[in-house]
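Render this sequence as a predicted structure.
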Amino acid sequence: MTSTIWAPWRMAYIGGPKPCTGCILCALPCEQDDRAHLILYRGQTAYVMMNRYPYNNGHLLVVPYRHAADLTAFSGEESLELLRVTGRVTALLREAFGAEGFNVGFNIGRAAGAGIADHVHLHVVPRWVGDTNFMPVLADTRVMPEYLNATYDKLLPCFRGEADERTPCSSR
């Protein structure tokens, strides 16, 4: 029996315009189109955006505005905000999606798996007990149960503090 997995967002990436030259993590917050770039929060020295090619629904990136390839380049204030925002992100994902745990980390340098090696960013991947099934193990395929824009619409009110009884993080 043949199975089909629906992943229509991939064609937008394959056929869509490629980013301008330079660092995409520097360019996206300057363009002021948060929804198009999946930016959920803007802090003083860092911002939060959804990963366009997530490992799980709710996979977010905490990104310093300053372009640097190594953590040693950041000031104490920048480092502290990265940690504080990461704490807020995990709390919101726990409320919004019932996340039971998180993979949180930096891939520093291409050898460590960094897709954008010149601009440090932190990955926050929500996890649930039993969330790994046969698809990634046997077929090297991930199944995403929700479109990115639907996830964005769920999370944005949480980050803006506008949650109400209809949003998944309304218990805040």
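Summary. The first strand starts at residue 39 and ends at 42. The CA atoms of residues 51 and 60 lie 5 Å apart.
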